[in-house]
UniProtKB/TrEMBL annotation:
Signal peptide: 1-37
This protein's UniProt keywords: Signal
Record protein name field: S-layer homology domain-containing protein
Domain of life: Bacteria
Species, as recorded: Paenibacillus yanchengensis
InterPro entries named in the record: SLH_dom
Domain SLH residue range list: 43-111, 186-252
Pfam families attached to this UniProt entry: SLH (PF00395)
Length: 719
């Protein structure tokens, strides 16, 4: 049996046949379902004994292509084997460490090398060992001493133990100082006492750098320091250690995926784009998992590592979940066909966007458009890369018809379809009247009021004696429709976190106080005052009756007149202050009102708080600026529970269409499965999507309220 180097170059020396590496066996394999929904069954290496799904498959595949490890060739069967469970000798481990560090080219085989008589190594390994001494991978004095203590075994052919190899690799990546610093740190392994004192710091350093994790069973996690390291284990250790060292391996490039098709992947590196062919033999991996994945899980515009031969990608690894793209909103100025440049006005300044024939142009509802549809003053959203010196445009999304003019006047009449204003600038209302149709989903803006509607607009001379109605500014689009109505002569104030009292002797008034029975205020009802309970409309009689069971109200008013009174079971706002002494929580509503309320306690139990990613969260886990949902006690002004809103970018690792569940991997490399029954599912442009439009491996933006998902939005330009 002869050893071939990466299928092509035959190594003549039989002794060199064992110079194959592995990684750390203490690393438990991750489930393939952690990153994809179906198992990839095709083995990623040429080795017949490295089956698809082997825990070290990824690392063996990578290191063999990097020509750090070799394989055994059987001429009778014309097959290659790796022998993953075979132990590695000390001199073999040194050879692999030097190849890993890219130092094999520095070997000096011309010099006659002599070691101490007790220090026995093979002739082939001598220049490697000498180089390892020169590069401080090995401590010559210490290794001589170890050889002298074990005269029954040759130093070179002696099986390398896990603790010995760990020291070798930590020194190879230049982390000697880290090992010294951690020499007296406590180890997490249950068999830490078995680690030789001269290796403790190195094992701790390797653990801290995630090079080793240990073998976990029912008794706990152990390191087994005196066991021989096998080839699969050493391959894994060296593969993971590559994150700690920069080596330019032949045929390997790391960059950004600038183009991805079924047959090609282009990598952008240092201003140059190189295209590689993909075929059935290409192996795909993810930096956060061990097993191979599907081609469909590659992330376009994300970081990737490619190892290629003759222009064909043999190994592709996703190296990050962030897409190097950004969205820019602006209005069209012009398109220069000669330059292939789209010019927009962005935040009041002109900016150019380079385009090409591959740029996708579509409307907000997904309709395919052409360059001719990019009319001047039309609002567009441009998706472009952010890794080129001159960013390239990927996609252009055209918004609805733009605003082309505004007009102001007194509001004379209103309906769900039309508004009429008088454009006169005096108190005389006999001037010319103009009537306009309303665009679908017209926006109404009243300072201090969220989600204002046509109903809240005040018409000149209404039933409540408002002789002076609203002065409004109408925004008109190119179709002559009103898209927005802005009230210019009044604002709305909001009182929240208050309780209401009704006095029958004052049937048209309500008395409001805060949670501490201070700051009383009396406000008047009008014929247009709206009442609701969590969005459900109430009439005045039912609303006043409800005060017997729920005193919590939020009131919006102008002057002393109530526009709306809402019975509140939940508030949404941002944390301003938490006081654990007074047991109060202060938060600010989107309308601008600041609310201070006491929170409940339940004997020795804290108030329930939900914050995604934190089990058993407490009031101390609330941070200033956190967006929260506050559950109220209906009978008094008191907070009963808090849920924290969180927005986080995650990667989809599994999709369960049958049960409407998705498994995610967070930026902290943790995974969890989430029901998305109540979540809004959106594409990158904001259009609603079905769950089957998302794919495993895709990066999404998620929004949670406590442990409940509210929204999942794709950042994939193709969605």
């Amino acid at each position: 049996m002869k050893l071939h180097r990466h299928m092509k170059k035959t190594i003549v020396s039989v002794a060199a046949a064992t110079l194959l590496m592995g990684g750390i066996p203490t690393l438990a394999p991750l489930s393939s379902s952690a990153v994809h929904a179906e198992v990839v069954n095709q083995a990623a290496t040429i080795f017949k004994d490295v089956k698809a799904g082997l825990w070290a498959e990824k690392h063996i595949a990578k290191l063999s292509l990097q020509r750090i490890i070799n394989g055994y060739y059987d001429e009778k069967t014309a097959t290659y084997s790796f022998k993953p469970n075979q132990s590695v000798s000390q001199e073999e481990a040194v050879v692999m460490a030097l190849r890993f560090a890219g130092l094999e080219k520095d070997l000096d085989s011309s010099t006659d090398i002599t070691f101490d008589e007790s220090f026995q190594v093979t002739k082939y390994a001598k220049p490697y060992i000498q180089l390892a001494f020169d590069k401080q991978f090995l401590d010559k004095e210490q290794e001589y001493s170890l050889a002298g203590e074990d005269k029954a075994n040759n130093w070179g052919t002696k099986p390398a133990t896990r603790e010995w190899v760990t020291k070798l690799i930590v020194r190879a990546i230049g982390e000697e100082e880290a090992a010294k610093r951690l020499q007296n740190s406590e180890s997490s392994f249950r068999d830490a006492d078995a680690i030789d004192s001269k290796y403790v710091g190195y094992v701790n350093a390797a653990t801290q750098m995630d090079l080793i994790k240990g073998i976990t069973n029912s008794k706990g996690t152990s390191f087994e320091p005196k066991d021989p390291i096998n080839r699969a284990s050493l391959a894994t250790l060296l593969s993971r250690a590559q994150h700690q060292i920069e080596v330019n391996y032949e045929g390997q490039s790391t960059g950004i995926v600038s183009k991805l098709t079924d047959k090609e992947v282009a990598l952008y590196v240092d201003g140059k784009e190189t295209t590689y062919q993909l075929n059935d033999q290409t192996a795909y991996y993810h930096f956060q998992t061990e097993n191979s994945m599907r081609k469909q899980e590659l992330i376009e515009y994300g970081d990737a590592l490619v190892i290629a031969e003759n222009g064909v990608a043999k190994y592709v690894e996703v190296m990050g979940v962030e897409k190097k793209v950004e969205s820019v909103v602006g209005t069209v100025v012009l398109y220069n066909n000669e330059e292939k440049m789209l010019y927009l006005l962005v935040n009041g300044k002109p900016e150019g966007f380079l385009t090409n024939d591959q740029v996708i142009i579509e409307s907000a509802d997904g309709k395919v458009l052409q360059l001719a549809d990019l009319k001047r003053d039309r609002e567009v959203t441009v998706l472009r890369d952010k890794f080129r010196s001159t960013p390239q445009t990927i996609k252009i999304v055209v918004s609805s018809a733009p605003i082309v003019s505004t007009v102001s006047g007194k509001l004379m009449s209103k309906s769900n379809k039309l508004v009429t204003i008088s454009q006169t600038t005096t108190t005389n209302t006999t001037g010319k009247l103009d009537t306009y149709y309303l665009a679908p989903h017209v926006a109404v803006e009243i300072n201090g009021m969220l989600d204002a509607s046509i109903e809240q607009l005040v018409v000149e001379g209404d039933a409540d004696g408002n002789a002076a109605g609203d002065v409004v500014q109408l925004s008109i689009n190119e179709d002559g429709q009103v898209t927005k109505i802005k009230v210019e002569n009044r604002s709305v104030e909001v009182l929240a976190g208050v309780k209401a009292f009704f006095n029958k002797d004052l049937p048209n008034y309500i008395i409001l106080t805060d949670a501490f029975d201070k700051n009383a205020k009396t406000l008047a009802f009008t014929a247009d005052t709206r009442f609701d309970m969590n969005g459900t409309k109430l009439d005045k009689a039912n609303a006043l009756q409800m005060l017997n069971t729920n005193v919590n109200v939020k009131v919006s008013y102008t002057s002393d007149k109530i526009i709306s009174m809402s019975f509140v079971t939940e508030y949404t706002g941002t944390v301003v202050e938490r006081n654990t002494v007074d047991k109060t929580l202060t938060f600010k509503l989107a309308e601008g009102a600041t609310v201070k309320l006491p929170y409940a306690s339940y004997g020795n139990m804290a108030m329930p708080i939900e914050k995604r990613g934190i089990s058993n969260a407490t009031i101390a886990d609330l941070r200033q600026g956190d967006t929260i949902s506050v559950g109220m006690n209906m009978g008094q002004l008191q907070i009963m529970n808090v849920r924290v809103q969180a927005t986080e970018q995650m990667q989809i690792t599994n999709i369960d269409l049958a049960n409407n569940k998705v498994t995610f991997r967070t930026n902290q490399n943790t995974t969890f499965t989430q029901s998305i029954n109540k979540a809004e599912l959106l594409g990158s442009t904001g259009l609603k999507l079905a769950l089957n439009r998302f794919k495993v491996g895709e990066t999404v933006n998620t929004t949670f309220i406590g442990n409940e998902m509210l929204k999942m939005q794709s950042i994939d330009s193709g969605n």
